[in-house]
Write a structure and sequence with these properties.
Layout: H1 16-25, E1 28-30, H2 45-59, E2 64-70, H3 74-82, E3 86-97, E4 100-110
Parallel strand pairs: 1-2
Antiparallel strand pairs: 2-4, 3-4
């Protein structure tokens, strides 16, 4: 999960004060970068991770979980759609991968 108001990048922690602040300001959670090596796909790990994120979102009283993917990551987009995810927006040329501009696909699951 991303905690934009909680601590320094790469050292973010969900402290009780931080969670109270987030609850007062937000109605959504954002899943930070999550991925599985190809050898570990197809074993239910990704589904369990997503379920955990959705449960956390609900427990915090939030209404939507967001996640974003490079448009070239069709597997992740298909996975998220298969778990009730919907495309919210496309940010053109958001990433640069192997020297090429790649769009970002922002997706959400509403609870």
């Amino acid at each position: 999960m991303t905690f934009p108001l909680c601590g320094k990048p790469r050292r973010r922690r969900a402290t009780p004060d931080c969670l109270r602040e987030l609850r007062s300001l937000s109605v959504y959670a954002e899943e930070d970068v999550t991925g599985l090596a190809e050898a570990h796909r197809g074993h239910g790990i990704g589904s369990r991770l997503l379920d955990h994120g959705l449960n956390w979102t609900e427990e915090m009283g939030l209404t939507t979980l967001y996640s974003s993917f490079p448009a070239t990551n069709e597997g992740a987009i298909d996975f998220f759609e298969a778990h009730a995810g919907a495309v919210e927006a496309v940010h053109e040329s958001h990433y640069r991968i192997d020297g090429e501009s790649v769009d970002e696909v922002m997706m959400s699951v509403s609870l």
